[in-house]
Design a protein that fits this description.
25% of the residues lie in helices and 17% in strands. The protein has eight helices and 15 strands. It starts with a strand and ends in a 5-residue tail after the last helix. Bound molecules: adenosine monophosphate and magnesium ion (MG).
Protein backbone atom coordinates (compact mmCIF):
# COMPACT_ATOMS: atom_id res chain seq x y z
CA UNK A 1 0.00 0.00 0.00
CA UNK A 2 1.93 3.03 -1.24
CA UNK A 3 1.45 6.26 0.69
CA UNK A 4 2.53 9.66 -0.57
CA UNK A 5 4.60 11.14 2.28
CA UNK A 6 2.29 14.07 3.07
CA UNK A 7 2.37 15.54 6.61
CA UNK A 8 -0.93 13.72 7.32
CA UNK A 9 0.46 10.39 6.08
CA UNK A 10 3.57 10.78 8.25
CA UNK A 11 1.42 11.54 11.26
CA UNK A 12 -0.75 8.48 10.55
CA UNK A 13 2.28 6.25 9.99
CA UNK A 14 3.81 7.36 13.32
CA UNK A 15 0.51 6.73 15.07
CA UNK A 16 0.20 3.22 13.59
CA UNK A 17 3.77 2.38 14.62
CA UNK A 18 3.00 3.51 18.18
CA UNK A 19 -0.07 1.25 18.12
CA UNK A 20 2.09 -1.75 17.23
CA UNK A 21 1.50 -1.90 13.46
CA UNK A 22 4.18 -2.40 10.78
CA UNK A 23 5.12 0.51 8.50
CA UNK A 24 7.69 0.53 5.72
CA UNK A 25 9.76 3.67 5.14
CA UNK A 26 12.68 4.75 2.96
CA UNK A 27 16.19 5.23 4.29
CA UNK A 28 19.38 6.24 2.46
CA UNK A 29 20.38 2.56 2.29
CA UNK A 30 17.26 0.49 1.42
CA UNK A 31 13.56 0.51 2.50
CA UNK A 32 12.98 -0.69 6.06
CA UNK A 33 10.08 -2.61 7.60
CA UNK A 34 9.53 -0.87 10.93
CA UNK A 35 7.94 -1.90 14.22
CA UNK A 36 8.09 -0.37 17.68
CA UNK A 37 11.11 -2.05 19.30
CA UNK A 38 9.42 -2.15 22.71
CA UNK A 39 6.42 -4.03 21.38
CA UNK A 40 6.95 -7.79 21.50
CA UNK A 41 3.93 -8.55 19.33
CA UNK A 42 4.89 -6.03 16.64
CA UNK A 43 8.49 -7.25 16.54
CA UNK A 44 7.32 -10.87 16.32
CA UNK A 45 5.19 -9.84 13.36
CA UNK A 46 8.31 -8.55 11.54
CA UNK A 47 9.94 -11.97 11.86
CA UNK A 48 6.75 -13.73 10.78
CA UNK A 49 6.08 -11.55 7.73
CA UNK A 50 9.70 -11.68 6.54
CA UNK A 51 10.13 -15.37 7.30
CA UNK A 52 13.25 -14.27 9.20
CA UNK A 53 14.95 -16.74 11.56
CA UNK A 54 14.42 -15.69 15.20
CA UNK A 55 18.19 -15.88 15.80
CA UNK A 56 18.83 -13.00 13.38
CA UNK A 57 18.65 -9.79 15.47
CA UNK A 58 17.22 -6.49 14.20
CA UNK A 59 18.80 -3.07 13.87
CA UNK A 60 17.12 -0.39 15.97
CA UNK A 61 16.58 2.99 14.33
CA UNK A 62 16.69 6.32 16.14
CA UNK A 63 16.12 9.92 15.05
CA UNK A 64 19.26 11.18 16.81
CA UNK A 65 22.34 9.85 18.56
CA UNK A 66 21.08 11.32 21.87
CA UNK A 67 18.21 8.87 21.65
CA UNK A 68 20.21 5.65 21.40
CA UNK A 69 22.49 6.65 24.26
CA UNK A 70 19.56 5.89 26.59
CA UNK A 71 19.51 2.26 25.47
CA UNK A 72 23.13 1.20 24.99
CA UNK A 73 26.45 1.66 26.80
CA UNK A 74 28.94 3.85 24.92
CA UNK A 75 32.50 2.56 25.47
CA UNK A 76 34.76 5.59 26.07
CA UNK A 77 37.26 4.35 23.46
CA UNK A 78 34.64 4.38 20.71
CA UNK A 79 33.09 7.81 21.35
CA UNK A 80 34.98 9.46 18.52
CA UNK A 81 34.20 6.58 16.12
CA UNK A 82 30.50 7.03 16.87
CA UNK A 83 30.78 10.81 16.47
CA UNK A 84 32.30 10.33 13.02
CA UNK A 85 29.89 7.72 11.69
CA UNK A 86 26.57 8.04 13.53
CA UNK A 87 24.53 9.40 10.63
CA UNK A 88 26.53 7.88 7.77
CA UNK A 89 24.93 4.55 6.89
CA UNK A 90 26.71 2.70 9.71
CA UNK A 91 25.04 0.53 12.38
CA UNK A 92 26.85 0.14 15.71
CA UNK A 93 26.66 -3.05 17.80
CA UNK A 94 26.88 -1.94 21.45
CA UNK A 95 26.20 -3.44 24.90
CA UNK A 96 22.50 -3.18 25.72
CA UNK A 97 21.75 -1.43 29.02
CA UNK A 98 20.65 -3.89 31.69
CA UNK A 99 17.28 -2.31 32.41
CA UNK A 100 15.68 -2.09 29.01
CA UNK A 101 12.29 -1.77 27.37
CA UNK A 102 13.60 -3.20 24.09
CA UNK A 103 11.93 -6.53 23.25
CA UNK A 104 14.31 -9.46 23.65
CA UNK A 105 13.15 -10.56 20.17
CA UNK A 106 14.97 -7.55 18.70
CA UNK A 107 18.32 -8.72 20.08
CA UNK A 108 17.55 -12.42 19.51
CA UNK A 109 17.98 -12.78 23.27
CA UNK A 110 21.53 -11.39 23.18
CA UNK A 111 23.21 -8.74 25.32
CA UNK A 112 24.03 -6.35 22.48
CA UNK A 113 21.89 -4.03 20.36
CA UNK A 114 22.62 -2.77 16.84
CA UNK A 115 21.70 0.92 16.58
CA UNK A 116 21.55 3.26 13.63
CA UNK A 117 20.48 6.82 12.81
CA UNK A 118 19.34 7.12 9.21
CA UNK A 119 20.03 10.37 7.37
CA UNK A 120 17.02 10.14 5.04
CA UNK A 121 14.72 13.11 5.83
CA UNK A 122 11.52 11.03 5.73
CA UNK A 123 12.96 8.37 8.02
CA UNK A 124 14.15 11.07 10.42
CA UNK A 125 10.80 12.83 10.46
CA UNK A 126 8.94 9.58 11.08
CA UNK A 127 11.31 8.48 13.86
CA UNK A 128 11.07 11.91 15.48
CA UNK A 129 7.28 11.71 15.50
CA UNK A 130 7.37 8.21 17.02
CA UNK A 131 9.91 9.31 19.65
CA UNK A 132 10.82 5.71 20.45
CA UNK A 133 13.22 3.16 18.91
CA UNK A 134 11.96 1.46 15.76
CA UNK A 135 13.34 -1.92 14.72
CA UNK A 136 13.60 -2.04 10.97
CA UNK A 137 15.19 -4.77 8.88
CA UNK A 138 15.07 -4.45 5.12
CA UNK A 139 11.48 -4.67 3.82
CA UNK A 140 11.90 -7.87 1.81
CA UNK A 141 11.15 -11.52 2.45
CA UNK A 142 14.12 -13.19 4.13
CA UNK A 143 16.90 -14.27 1.70
CA UNK A 144 15.50 -12.11 -1.11
CA UNK A 145 16.88 -8.95 -2.65
CA UNK A 146 16.40 -5.82 -0.50
CA UNK A 147 13.93 -3.18 -1.77
CA UNK A 148 15.25 0.11 -3.13
CA UNK A 149 11.89 1.68 -4.05
CA UNK A 150 8.33 1.67 -2.68
CA UNK A 151 7.11 -0.57 -5.54
CA UNK A 152 9.54 -3.32 -4.46
CA UNK A 153 8.07 -3.22 -0.93
CA UNK A 154 4.50 -3.17 -2.25
CA UNK A 155 5.19 -6.28 -4.30
CA UNK A 156 6.33 -8.27 -1.23
CA UNK A 157 3.90 -6.79 1.34
CA UNK A 158 0.88 -5.29 -0.48
CA UNK A 159 -1.11 -4.82 2.74
CA UNK A 160 1.60 -2.90 4.65
CA UNK A 161 1.70 0.90 4.25
CA UNK A 162 4.94 2.08 2.64
CA UNK A 163 5.89 5.78 2.65
CA UNK A 164 6.97 6.44 -0.92
CA UNK A 165 10.27 8.34 -0.90
CA UNK A 166 11.31 7.32 -4.42
CA UNK A 167 14.48 5.36 -5.13
CA UNK A 168 17.06 5.03 -2.33
CA UNK A 169 20.26 6.96 -3.02
CA UNK A 170 22.55 4.38 -1.38
CA UNK A 171 21.05 1.13 -2.62
CA UNK A 172 22.75 -1.38 -0.29
CA UNK A 173 22.42 -2.01 3.44
CA UNK A 174 24.28 -0.24 6.25
CA UNK A 175 27.73 -1.32 7.38
CA UNK A 176 27.43 -3.21 10.68
CA UNK A 177 30.34 -2.47 13.04
CA UNK A 178 30.95 -4.25 16.35
CA UNK A 179 31.96 -1.75 19.04
CA UNK A 180 31.99 -4.24 21.92
CA UNK A 181 35.65 -5.06 21.24
CA UNK A 182 38.70 -2.80 21.79
CA UNK A 183 39.01 -2.31 18.01
CA UNK A 184 35.92 -1.56 15.89
CA UNK A 185 35.22 -4.61 13.75
CA UNK A 186 33.22 -4.75 10.52
CA UNK A 187 30.63 -7.53 10.72
CA UNK A 188 28.96 -6.61 7.45
CA UNK A 189 30.51 -4.28 4.86
CA UNK A 190 28.03 -1.72 3.58
CA UNK A 191 27.34 1.68 2.17
CA UNK A 192 30.17 3.42 4.01
CA UNK A 193 33.63 2.13 4.80
CA UNK A 194 34.64 3.01 8.34
CA UNK A 195 38.23 2.49 9.41
CA UNK A 196 37.89 -0.80 11.22
CA UNK A 197 39.15 -4.37 11.19
CA UNK A 198 37.34 -6.66 8.79
CA UNK A 199 36.19 -9.87 10.48
CA UNK A 200 38.48 -12.67 9.45
CA UNK A 201 36.67 -15.65 7.97
CA UNK A 202 38.09 -18.05 10.57
CA UNK A 203 36.58 -16.01 13.36
CA UNK A 204 33.12 -16.84 14.59
CA UNK A 205 30.76 -14.24 13.21
CA UNK A 206 29.19 -12.12 15.91
CA UNK A 207 26.49 -11.14 13.46
CA UNK A 208 24.35 -14.23 13.78
CA UNK A 209 22.08 -13.49 10.85
CA UNK A 210 24.82 -13.30 8.26
CA UNK A 211 23.98 -16.35 6.20
CA UNK A 212 26.07 -17.47 3.24
CA UNK A 213 23.07 -17.30 0.98
CA UNK A 214 21.18 -14.02 1.11
CA UNK A 215 20.00 -11.18 -1.11
CA UNK A 216 19.23 -13.77 -3.79
CA UNK A 217 17.06 -13.47 -6.89
CA UNK A 218 15.09 -16.54 -8.10
CA UNK A 219 17.56 -17.28 -10.86
CA UNK A 220 21.05 -18.59 -10.14
CA UNK A 221 23.80 -15.94 -10.14
CA UNK A 222 27.29 -16.52 -11.57
CA UNK A 223 30.17 -14.17 -10.76
CA UNK A 224 33.21 -12.97 -12.73
CA UNK A 225 31.76 -13.72 -16.15
CA UNK A 226 33.15 -11.36 -18.77
CA UNK A 227 30.83 -11.94 -21.74
CA UNK A 228 27.04 -12.46 -22.02
CA UNK A 229 25.94 -16.07 -22.46
CA UNK A 230 23.02 -17.40 -24.43
CA UNK A 231 19.70 -17.39 -22.46
CA UNK A 232 21.38 -15.69 -19.49
CA UNK A 233 21.06 -12.05 -18.41
CA UNK A 234 24.34 -10.16 -17.92
CA UNK A 235 25.36 -7.33 -15.57
CA UNK A 236 28.29 -5.10 -16.60
CA UNK A 237 30.17 -2.08 -15.24
CA UNK A 238 32.09 0.74 -16.96
CA UNK A 239 32.20 2.43 -20.36
CA UNK A 240 31.09 0.91 -23.65
CA UNK A 241 28.43 -1.49 -22.31
CA UNK A 242 24.73 -0.82 -22.66
CA UNK A 243 21.60 -1.33 -20.59
CA UNK A 244 18.86 -3.09 -22.55
CA UNK A 245 16.48 -4.99 -20.28
CA UNK A 246 14.80 -6.87 -23.13
CA UNK A 247 18.16 -8.15 -24.25
CA UNK A 248 18.98 -8.98 -20.61
CA UNK A 249 21.75 -6.39 -20.26
CA UNK A 250 22.26 -3.99 -17.34
CA UNK A 251 25.23 -1.65 -16.93
CA UNK A 252 25.55 -0.74 -13.23
CA UNK A 253 27.54 2.42 -14.01
CA UNK A 254 28.68 3.40 -17.51
CA UNK A 255 31.02 5.99 -15.94
CA UNK A 256 32.65 3.36 -13.71
CA UNK A 257 31.38 4.87 -10.45
CA UNK A 258 31.07 2.29 -7.65
CA UNK A 259 28.57 4.39 -5.67
CA UNK A 260 26.30 4.42 -8.71
CA UNK A 261 26.84 0.68 -9.09
CA UNK A 262 25.72 0.16 -5.47
CA UNK A 263 22.63 2.26 -6.11
CA UNK A 264 21.74 0.09 -9.13
CA UNK A 265 22.79 -3.38 -7.99
CA UNK A 266 19.50 -4.59 -6.47
CA UNK A 267 17.53 -2.90 -9.27
CA UNK A 268 19.57 -4.91 -11.79
CA UNK A 269 19.12 -8.18 -9.88
CA UNK A 270 15.35 -7.63 -9.76
CA UNK A 271 14.87 -6.35 -13.32
CA UNK A 272 16.89 -9.20 -14.84
CA UNK A 273 15.25 -11.91 -12.71
CA UNK A 274 12.67 -12.53 -15.46
CA UNK A 275 11.91 -15.03 -18.20
CA UNK A 276 13.24 -15.90 -20.74
CA UNK A 277 16.56 -15.67 -18.85
CA UNK A 278 17.63 -18.76 -16.95
CA UNK A 279 20.49 -17.24 -14.96
CA UNK A 280 22.15 -13.91 -14.19
CA UNK A 281 25.88 -13.45 -14.81
CA UNK A 282 27.99 -10.53 -13.62
CA UNK A 283 31.35 -9.18 -14.71
CA UNK A 284 34.23 -8.75 -12.23
CA UNK A 285 33.94 -5.50 -10.20
CA UNK A 286 36.72 -3.34 -8.72
CA UNK A 287 37.40 -4.37 -5.11
CA UNK A 288 38.25 -1.06 -3.51
CA UNK A 289 35.99 0.70 -0.95
CA UNK A 290 32.31 0.02 -1.51
CA UNK A 291 33.33 -2.57 -4.13
CA UNK A 292 33.95 -4.90 -1.18
CA UNK A 293 30.35 -4.50 -0.04
CA UNK A 294 29.13 -5.20 -3.58
CA UNK A 295 31.28 -8.32 -3.72
CA UNK A 296 29.89 -9.43 -0.33
CA UNK A 297 26.28 -9.08 -1.55
CA UNK A 298 27.03 -10.74 -4.89
CA UNK A 299 28.79 -13.73 -3.36
CA UNK A 300 25.79 -14.25 -1.06
CA UNK A 301 23.42 -13.93 -4.06
CA UNK A 302 25.52 -16.55 -5.86
CA UNK A 303 25.93 -18.91 -2.89
CA UNK A 304 24.13 -22.22 -2.87
CA UNK A 305 24.74 -22.69 0.86
CA UNK A 306 21.71 -21.96 3.03
CA UNK A 307 23.51 -21.47 6.35
P1 LIG B 1 18.97 -6.29 7.95
O1 LIG B 1 18.32 -5.34 8.90
O2 LIG B 1 18.05 -7.27 7.35
O3 LIG B 1 19.78 -5.53 6.94
O4 LIG B 1 20.03 -7.14 8.78
C1 LIG B 1 20.63 -6.63 9.95
C2 LIG B 1 22.00 -7.18 10.13
O5 LIG B 1 22.53 -6.66 11.34
C3 LIG B 1 22.03 -8.69 10.22
O6 LIG B 1 23.15 -9.16 9.52
C4 LIG B 1 22.17 -8.94 11.71
O7 LIG B 1 22.82 -10.15 12.02
C5 LIG B 1 22.99 -7.73 12.15
N1 LIG B 1 22.74 -7.43 13.56
C6 LIG B 1 21.63 -6.90 14.10
N2 LIG B 1 21.74 -6.83 15.44
C7 LIG B 1 22.96 -7.34 15.77
C8 LIG B 1 23.65 -7.55 17.01
N3 LIG B 1 23.12 -7.23 18.17
N4 LIG B 1 24.88 -8.11 16.94
C9 LIG B 1 25.42 -8.45 15.77
N5 LIG B 1 24.82 -8.27 14.57
C10 LIG B 1 23.60 -7.73 14.56
MG1 LIG C 1 17.94 -7.64 5.23
Amino acid sequence: MKWQPTPDALEKAAQLLKEGKLISFPTETVYGLGALAENDVAVTEIFRRKGRPAKNPLICHFSHRNQFEDFVEIPADHKSFIETYWEKGVSFVLPLKKETLISSKVTAGGSTLAVRVPSHPLAKELLEKVGKPVSAPSANKSMKVSPTCAEDVDEAFPDIPVLDGGACTGGIESSVVDLTTPQPKILRPGLVFPEADPTSSSEELKSPGLLSKHYAPERPVFLNITEPRINQAHITFGPGKKTDLEAGLFNLSPSGDLQEAARNLYRALRDLDQPPFKAITICPLPQEGIGQALQDRLSRAASKVNT
